[in-house]
Amino acid sequence: MSTPALKIYNTLSRTKEEFRPIDPAHVRMYVCGPTVYDYAHIGNARPLIVFDVLFRLLRHLYGAEHVTYVRNITDVDDKINARAFERGISIRELTDKTIDIFHEDVRALGCLNPTIEPRATDYIRNDDKQIDMVRLIQRLLDSGHAYVEDRHVLFDVTSMPTYGRLSRRPLDEMIAGARVDVAPYKRGDMDFVLWKPSKDDEPGWQSPWGRGRPGWHIECSAMSAAHLGETFDIHGGGIDLVFPHHENEIAQSCCAFGRDVMANYWMHNGFLQVEGEKMSKSLGNFVTIHELLHTEKFGGRKWPGEVLRLAMLRTHYRQPIDWTVKALEEAETKLTYWMTAMDFSVAPLGSDGRIADQPLRSDEIPSTYLEALSDDLNTPLAMQILDRAFSELRTDRVLSIMLELSGIDLEAFRAWRHDQDQAFFEKHGDIVKRLITARLAARASKNWAESDRIRDELAAMGIALKDNKDGTTTWEVKR
Ligand code: AMP
Ligand code: ZN
Fold first, then answer.
1. DSSP code, position 459
2. Atom number of ligand 1 nearest to Cα 47
3. Closest ligand 1 atom number to CA of residue 32
4. What pLDDT was estimated at residue 468?
5. 62: CA distance to ligand 1 center in Å?
6. Residue 401 half-sphere exposure toward CB, CA atoms < 13 A
7. N or C terminus of the chain with fewer C-beta within 10 Å?
8. What is the rounded CA–CA span in Å between residue 309 and residue 332?
């Protein structure tokens, strides 16, 4: 069986294109990561999951050792400074703590570690690398694409004729409609900051332009070049990053290195909204990954990472996604079914009648599954095919590799349910036992009203009872 061609919707061309890596022996992807001043919200989880599926697929298609995935951490930002000041802690303490929580969250969502996770502050000046932010800015100054004004360094957008190509906003239109921050140190309204001065109580680094700190966009140009080279294959992030962030990354990298292209394929995930509304703190529907996993804020209960992941994958990554309790419940029902079906799936037998332990051949995976994933990550279709594979009772090896490709860990889901049941019984075990015994006694004396009352009481506690034809009663914890 031949491997299906990978097709990717490229924001640059606004079309689906066949993916051709610059070097198939070294496929290179960069995705903009979190700004670590607070817990990541569930919208932030979308690019993490989407690009994790792509990373898994690229590893499958090109070999794990041939794929490099860089996802940065933004640990220098004015929101970080403000938050650390508010809490009375150092910036490093705030960012270290936030990074730890972020790592717990992404692990719970079933994401692999990226190959490299650079922190912006390590790349302001970095003598171990060919390039860092200060040297990149210096190159832009030397080549006439930037200027110094009042201790700021600014990128001169008029110096780049193709500025606006990714977002398809011609510069003259942008200038005409500009509401962007007009500042005295800017020659043109659309010019953006590469370096800015720091006050004494603000974090700062020494530079040829005085003590200061970088603008937002320059870090991704520096970190991607440091690890992936001047031109690489795929650059990803959420749709809100197309302008200005990615447009400005392209301007910086192309102008600093004298190239036409920073990355060949630009991929952007659509936005997440909650129960049909934009997620915002003022609407009270703002929910973090941490809250979904560990608190009862959303839908009155906790949700395991596998449910969050599957709910995300059931919508195509470029579509907007509506995050609802109902969608999470549906994802959980699917996972429960898959978990049970997995118990009945069989290990394949070798010709000698013993369980085969040869490595899985890729033609054992239904080709439609790989085709769906390779078609611009059509995960909704892939999830349907996976669901069908469970009802067809494919071998557990095949099911496992299909799950692995999408990053769905059924064993982790099983363990989560087990822990939940355990916690439930530690809390309510005695009373549940007493109520079930009392109901059996009521039924034995044909006191149906009392029996029904107890059933309702148990239902209110989340216990569903089932009276079987053979006279026995079974029960389960409803989630
Ligand atoms: P930030 O920390 O705000 O820079 O965002 C980190 C990543 O999450 C970026 O790729 C954003 O585009 C993405 N993102 C932020 N909010 C949402 C949302 N509501 N839906 C989908 N992606 C989002
Ligand atoms: Zn970036």
1. H
2. 10
3. 10
4. 83
5. 28
6. 18
7. N
8. 10
Distance CA 391, CA 345 (A): 9
Q: Return the closest-CA partner of residue 255 out of 267, 247, 265, 245.
A: 247
Helices assigned H by DSSP within 5-125: 42-62, 78-87, 91-108
**364-383 burial string, b = 16+ CB within 10 Å, else e?**
ebbeebbbbbbbbbbbebbb
Q: Which ligand is nearest to the CA of 253?
A: 2
Q: If you write DSSP's letter for every residue of 52-77 in order, what string do you get?
A: HHHHHHHHHHH-GGGEEEEE-BB---
Q: Does residue 207 line the site of ligand 1, with CB under 6 A? A: no
Is a pLDDT exceeding 80 seen at residue 295?
Answer: yes
- In ligand 1, the atom with minimum distance to the C-alpha of 41 is 16
β-bridge partners, 9: 16
User: What's the rounded Cα separation, in Å, for the pair 164 and 162?
Assistant: 6
Is 37 in a helix, a strand, or coil?
coil
Tell me, using a 6 A CB cutoff, whether residue 293 lines ligand 1: no
pLDDT digits (tens, 9 = 90+) for 217-265: 999 999 999 999 999 999 999 999 999 999 999 999 999 999 999 999 9
Total residue count of the chain as it appears in this document: 479
Looking at the chain, the whole-number percentage of residues with pLDDT higher than 90 is 78
What tokens does 21 get? 């890596």
Ligand nearest to the CA of 120: 2
How far is the C-alpha of 43 from the C-alpha of 317, rounded, in Å? Answer: 12
E-strand ranges in 286-388 read 321-323
Specify which residues 41 forms β-bridges with.
288
- pLDDT of residue 355 exceeding 60, the answer is no
How far apart (Å, rounded) are the C-alpha atoms in residues 274 and 276? 5
Q: Say yes or no: CB of residue 279 within 6 Å of ligand 1.
A: yes
* Residue 318 to residues 22, 111, 210, Cα–Cα distance (Å): 25, 19, 43
Rg of the chain taking only CA atoms, in angstroms:
27
Least confident piece of the model among 307-316, 359-368, 373-382, 458-467 = 359-368
Q: Which atom of ligand 1 is nearest to the CA of 34?
A: 2
Residue with the nearest Cα to atom 6 of ligand 1? 34
What's the rounded Cα separation, in Å, for the pair 269 and 157? 26
CA separation for the pair 355, 347 (Å, rounded): 6
Whose alpha carbon is nearest atom 15 of ligand 1? 44
Say yes or no: CB of residue 271 within 6 Å of ligand 1: yes
Averaged pLDDT, 61-70: 97
Collapse the DSSP code of 477 into the 3-class scheme (helix H, G, I; strand E, B; otherwise coil) and give the result: strand
CATH topology (fold) of 7-269: Rossmann fold (3.40.50)
> In the β-sheet with 192-197, what is the strand arrangement from edge to edge?
146-149, 152-155, 192-197, 212-214
